[in-house]
Amino acid sequence: MKFLPLLVASIGFGAAAWPGRQQTQIVIITGDADGNLAPCGCTKPQTGGIKRRIAAVKQFSLPGHTTLLDNGNFVAGTGRQDQIKAQTMAEILGAAGWDAINVGPADARLGMGLLLSMNGLANGKFVASQLQPSPDSGLQQFSVSPPFLVIGVAAQPETVGQPLGQVASPMDDAVKAGIEQAKADNLAPVALLQGTREDSLQLASRFPDLKLISYRSVGSPPEKMEFAGATALVSPGSDGKYLLRMEYRGGKFSNYAAIAFGPQYKDDPTAARQFRNYLTRVRTEKLVEKLPRLSNDAYMGSLACGKCHSTATHVWKASLHTHALATLAARGEDRDPECLPCHVVGLSSSRGFRSPAETPDLAGVGCESCHGPGSAHSASPRNVRIPKVTETACLNCHTSNTSPGFSFPAYWKKIKH
Ligand code: HEC
Ligand code: HEC
Ligand code: HEC
Ligand code: HEC
User: Fold this and answer.
1) What is the pLDDT of residues 145-181, one digit of tens each?
2) Is the pLDDT of residue 9 over 60?
3) Rounded to whole angstroms, how far apart are CA atoms 123 and 132?
4) Which ligand has an atom closest to residue 415 CA?
5) Nearest to 293 by CA among 339, 337, 328
6) Do the Cβ atoms of 363 and 299 come closer than 8 Å?
7) How far is the CA of 352 from the centre of ligand 4 (A)?
8) Of 253, 250, 98, 122, which is closest to residue 190 (Cα–Cα)?
9) Residues 340/334, Cβ–Cβ less than 8 Å
10) 10 Å Cβ neighbour count for 255?
């Protein structure tokens, strides 16, 4: 992870001393959080997350001289939790003063009703340049945010149009219209593009008047700003872990930095409150209670195994696995269906974890998280054997994202029994 140096001191602010067009405008670009509201990964140092994003944005903004842009795709899915997340994200960006948010395919898939509620929460800042502008939709065709006019497009128009029940116009038509309006209003046209780097290169060659294109990419952002002719090409990367900050002055972008949200950014208090509200909604809407139970695997809890396996129980009790639910509870995330599967026993079974009160022996990572359901074995240990556990069992939970430092020999040593 790279933390590029910031050249804040070098910004040419003589505020009033400069003639208008020499004014430096700071541009901050985010996007494609893909549902990662909380910091990614379960190991320290965690990166990303919306609370840190807002703290970083505030640190790098200059009030009155900053444009905040987001390329959309707030969430990855369309379930109830995704809906709540998308609204939370819109509310957080709205409160933090975002100027324009592109409608990405993932946002469109949430449906027009939800998108409009998101647009309301974000102070009407969503832009969909390929949709028919209509007064009741409230979605802007372009976002005017001097010195910029922001165009929001998708390289495949149907990915945005179809889920919203509209025929979206071709990307080039929308970009052309945006550039014309920008010229008429003496603004600099910039495009938020749901498309690849290749798409952005082609777009820049067809529309050299575009000052900047922000495209979608996977992983971390490029270390440098790229230029196609005079058009700057940038991408904030995936999973909401980075922001891009650059300066616009005299018609040109410069002083680019891709900034990762490491732990040096303390949670923004307003965003933290909005995030707590999100967790409260997940809790009060009883999303854990509503989870489909796909199997009837008979779990019985670690306490029962302990009657016959004292050594293993002793080791387990001293391990962090025992506390896995407490770890979530300490953060208020103990009723979050996105976290519980790896932090309790048997969440997908009708006879698995429900709540600490109903199923106290299935809270945390237990014997059966690795060994599998053990009721039959407990009733008749010599007749029903427990299959051998291998490293594969660990990898269900210790993924490259949640446990990047995982190695079986080293980790097993800590809990060998
Ligand atoms: C059901 C999910 C799950 C499975 C399966 C699982 N773990 Fe874990 N493991 C966790 C969670 C969650 C934590 C963090 C607990 C906490 O800190 O609250 C953890 C923590 C650990 C730790 C503590 C890390 C530390 O920093 O001390 C070790 C060691 C460990 N696991 C080893 C293993 C091994 C070895 C396997 C496979 C044999 C395994 N785990 C299987 C979920 C799992
Ligand atoms: C795919 C399984 C999985 C999911 C889903 C998961 N975790 Fe974890 N979590 C783990 C594992 C494995 C560890 C232990 C990592 C290690 O020590 O290497 C862990 C550890 C943690 C820790 C302890 C970190 C530390 O270093 O002290 C926290 C906090 C945590 N998880 C929070 C969460 C939250 C919040 C969510 C939901 C947003 C979540 N986890 C979802 C598997 C998971
Ligand atoms: C993090 C995963 C994990 C957890 C939790 C866990 N085990 Fe194990 N256990 C293993 C692995 C891996 C082995 C060694 C491989 C094997 O022999 O199956 C093992 C071995 C054993 C063995 C010895 C098997 C043999 O053939 O010698 C027993 C008995 C056992 N575990 C019981 C328990 C009990 C009881 C608990 C809960 C108190 C528990 N385990 C918790 C992963 C786990
Ligand atoms: C009533 C006592 C009893 C209970 C309860 C019990 N076990 Fe066992 N377990 C045994 C005995 C006895 C053996 C040894 C079987 C043999 O070697 O013939 C055994 C063997 C095992 C083994 C080695 C593999 C095998 O099947 O031989 C594992 C792993 C294991 N138990 C895990 C568990 C887990 C996990 C639980 C709780 C879900 C559990 N046991 C509950 C008595 C029990």
Assistant:
1) 999 999 999 999 999 999 999 999 999 999 999 999 9
2) no
3) 20
4) 1
5) 337
6) no
7) 19
8) 253
9) yes
10) 18
- Nearest residue (by CA) to ligand 2, atom 18, is 403
Q: Which ligand places an atom closest to the C-alpha of 309?
A: 3
pLDDT tens digit sequence for 333-343: 999 999 999 99
Ligand 3 atom 32 nearest Cα:
312
Q: Whose CA is nearest to atom 12 of ligand 4?
A: 381
> Quick check: 216 pLDDT over 60?
yes
CB-based contact 366:301 (threshold 8 Å) = yes
State both tokens at 279. Answer: 């967790």
Find the largest Cα–Cα distance for the chain: 87
- From the CA of 390, give the closest atom in ligand 3: 12
CA 158 to chain centre: 23
Answer whether 50's CB lies under 8 Å from 261's CB: no
Q: Any residues with Cβ below 6 Å from ligand 3, and which?
A: 302, 305-306, 309, 312-313, 316, 321, 365, 367, 369-371, 388-389, 415, 417
The answer, yes or no, to whether any atom of ligand 1 lies below 6 A from the CB of 377, is no
| Two tokens, residue 51 | 């609370």
Using CA atoms of 366, 371, 377, 383 in order, give the dihedral in degrees to the nearest 10: -160
Nearest ligand by distance to the CA of 317: 3
Would you say 53 and 61 are in contact if contact means Cβ atoms under 8 Å apart? no
Cβ burial of 389 (10 Å; 0-12, 13-18, 19+) is exposed
Residues with Cβ within 6 A of ligand 2? 38, 42-44, 327-328, 331, 333, 336, 338-339, 341-343, 397-399, 402-403, 405-406
* Block residue for tokens 């990915």: 159
The label of the residue with tokens 């106290």 reads 360
Q: How far apart are CA 215 and CA 210, in angstroms?
A: 13
